[in-house]
Design brief:
alpha/beta
């Protein structure tokens, strides 16, 4: 059959479309740039080489005394004196908490029984088509339905990308509908901070984690040793989560693997601003519960948060979520000063990624409290 003018036009149109697609791929080299949210739901099958277990330890460290201020600094907390000042400041400045809850299948009845005196607003994002509560939702709460992608990390990025400018002094507390700790639930009972504790820390430092880092698995961490809120940056980048199916029914693995073989590769792909300076030590908040000043969110553009939202939209149970969990505190906290970094270096006995606990917290710092010098003045 001889080619016709119509056939020629079709061929030309196809060539134009191919050239346009190629041009767009060159303009958007990032794996997810300019990708519609629905098309982000792709399956990736790359195989990643596993990093070896490692630890960097020294005997040339100064044991911190375990006094209030030193322990608070080590754990990403504030001293009891500072908390008292923050309580007074909250009352005088009329600061309120705004709760953002990522809901899947656990009833939020427990939340209504919590002290909510200083909460002005609750936004519940529900994803799994399950009832939010067995009881009426309070009038200060709004329920929003979202697609079931990216779990709590996607929910948080979604909210940040749409955060308005009203009530700029309020503290936002991001949380999940439950806290799962499995066989280690008992060890974590005293590790969960209250809403007020998180709020006070965020008022003072900009970011407050809902989980204390000093929780120890008795089999992995010697008695008397203490783990930190901070991690060594280079070892932190080595973290990998190559598999996650805690619940075989819920945690489907068909879309788990991402384009990133490590947390370092994920970090390198984040659209961080040009002024960003890589730190020596990284604050990490585990558990998906944290408080933050609004200005810490607004320091980034809405496009930045929309990009994070898109990265976390690829599927439900995805590798990127575990990497983002370990990145929230880094992105939202104030960077340490050179003096604070020097103080951490002096206090640190080990940076660890060599046992069942620290492999999930790659680069976590460990020290040994000095219990012999209680009551004596020390610089740490």
């Amino acid at each position: 059959m001889r080619p016709t003018i119509k056939h020629g036009m079709v061929v030309c149109l196809l060539i134009v479309l191919v050239l346009l697609a190629w041009r767009n791929s060159m303009k958007h080299p990032n794996k997810y740039d300019a990708m519609p949210i629905e098309s982000a739901r792709i399956t990736i099958t790359q195989k990643c080489a596993e990093f070896k277990e490692t630890a960097e330890c020294t005997d040339n460290f100064q044991q911190p005394s375990g006094e209030n201020s030193a322990k608070a600094f080590w754990e990403g907390d504030i001293s009891s004196q500072e908390k008292k000042r923050m309580l007074e400041y909250r009352e005088s400045a009329k600061i309120k908490y705004e709760l953002v809850v990522s809901h899947c299948d656990t009833s939020l009845d427990w939340l209504w029984d919590s002290p909510l005196d200083h909460v002005s607003k609750i936004t519940i994002y529900t994803k799994c088509k399950k009832p939010v509560s067995d009881r009426p939702v309070p009038s200060i709460a709004t329920v929003v339905k979202l697609r079931n992608v990216g779990r709590c990390d996607h929910t948080f990025a979604y909210h940040m990308a749409r955060l308005g400018e009203e009530e700029p002094n309020n503290i936002i507390i991001f949380m999940k509908d439950s806290t799962y700790r499995g066989a280690y639930k008992t060890e974590y009972l005293n590790a969960i901070r209250t809403l007020d504790d998180m709020g006070m820390i965020a008022m003072r430092t900009g970011f407050g984690c809902g989980e204390k880092p000093a929780t120890q698995h008795v089999d992995d961490v010697p008695v008397g040793n203490a783990l930190s809120f901070y991690h060594q940056f280079q070892m932190w980048k080595r973290f990998q989560m190559l598999l996650y199916n805690r619940d075989p029914v819920r945690d489907q693995l068909d879309s788990f693997i991402s384009p990133y073989c490590s947390l370092g590769e994920f970090y390198d792909a984040l659209p961080l601003p040009p002024r960003w300076v890589p730190p020596a030590y990284v604050p990490v908040c585990y558990g998906g519960v944290f408080a933050v000043q609004k200005e810490r969110i607004h320091q980034y553009s809405k496009q930045f948060w929309a990009s994070i939202e898109l990265i976390l939209s690829r599927g439900d149970n995805i590798q990127e979520g575990h990497y983002m969990e370990r990145s929230w505190a880094l992105i939202l906290s104030k960077q340490l000063s050179s003096g604070e970094e020097a103080r951490l270096e002096l206090m640190t006995k080990c940076a660890k990624s060599d046992d069942a606990y620290s492999l999930l917290r790659s680069g976590i710092l460990e020290t040994v409290w000095d219990t012999q010098s209680k009551g004596q003045k020390r610089h740490l």
